[in-house]
Amino acid sequence: MEESRLILYDTCNYRDYPVGGQVTSIKNFLAFLSREYPEHRKNILLVGVSCNPEEVGKIIPIATGGSEYSFLAVTRASADLGSVKKSLRLEYVKGLWKYRKLIGIKKEDCNYIHTPEAFGAVRFLCPGAVCYVFSHGTYLNMWQRVRFFKKAPLIRKAFQGFLIHVIKKSTAVFVLEQETLEAYSVYNKNTVHVGNSIIVQPYTERRLHDEVRFLYAGRLSVVKNVGPIIEAVKSYDRVCSLTVLGDGEERRKMEALAEGSKRIRFAGAVTPDEVQKEMKKADVLVMNSTFEGIPMTILEAISLGLPVITTDVGGIKEVLTYGRDAEVTDGTVEKIHTAMDRILMDYEAYAEAAYRKSLQFDYRKVNRKVFDVINGKLNW
């Protein structure tokens, strides 16, 4: 009998695109598989996107997650996230259809889906296919955050209906926070709360720099609300700087807001390794989102002993303890300043507490819970 394949689907290249927590989360899952099931690597296919047109439409080996895996890019992605003209999600679905023979989905395969649009394509290509879905953020208001089709309310309404369908019909759904677990369980009793994972390194003691180094890492989009962070650093009464990692549709607006301030540096989209290097050089991570799940950026930061300033949205409160390893803000400049003051007054204690908290999210522990569910089909 032919062994079941594990096929992963996401609009990433499984290495370093796009910058953000989702690709890191998936790489951590692959690192877990490399460690625990190295003999099954030949039965794993990564279906994604690539900024390199030479990679599109062919199955090639790539190094990621500590091993080598088979990778198929089904569409080309733009490296410049600030000037994207087409929906990558829609182009990805078209690519799944175009290269359906290369993917070759079979009933015995296990499909592990990280972008919900792939669910419809997989079930269309193989009715009754086993589909495990990882919901990196709640789908229940996702239609409000879609950049495209904003002037087409019927399409947006249909998209929301489709997302509910994905939740209902998935073999199982993995979610990051308790609130989403409760909301999804109404539609699918096989909803599993797993959280995000990180690879924790040995702790290196931190010392606060004379020029305080603040860091933002993530997409420059409306929901990330980066403007008040820039304003807070520009007007803070201590010598400080802000490094902004990431790209997106709000970048030009944020650069204009910085107005050439010597305190603000825009580094653009960088690789995950470069994000790690910047975190090691920084003193405090600042997030200011109006919507989140459990941001991988925060988990990466605390694993390096980097205290966090953040808004209290999504599942962030399930990760951080405000007043110990982080400070909470309502998103305003004034409250960001207050949070900065509190952390800097007892910096080393916040840094040590942040690292200790990160040990709860070790990638082996979290991904064991995920894989034990998936392995009900794979039987590895």
Structural commentary:
The chain is an alpha/beta fold. The protein has 2 domains: 6-197 and 362-378, 3-Layer(aba) Sandwich (Rossmann fold), CATH 3.40.50.2000; 212-360, Rossmann fold (3-Layer(aba) Sandwich), CATH 3.40.50. Helix content is 37%, strand content 19%. It has helices spanning 21-36, 88-98, 100-103, 117-125, 153-169, 178-185, 227-235, 251-258, 272-281, 296-303, 333-345, 347-358, 363-378; strands at residues 6-9, 44-50, 59-64, 67-76, 110-113, 130-135, 172-175, 191-193, 212-217, 240-245, 264-268, 284-286, 308-311, 326-329. The strands form 2 sheets. Strands 3-4-2-1-5-6-7-8 form an 8-stranded mixed sheet, with helices on both faces. A 6-stranded parallel sheet has the order 11-10-9-12-13-14, with helices on both faces. Helix 4 (117-125) links the parallel strand 5 and strand 6 (130-135). Helix 1 crosses helix 13 (363-378) and helix 2 packs parallel to helix 4. The longest helix has 17 residues, at 153-169. The chain is globular and about 65 Å long. The two termini are 13 Å apart.
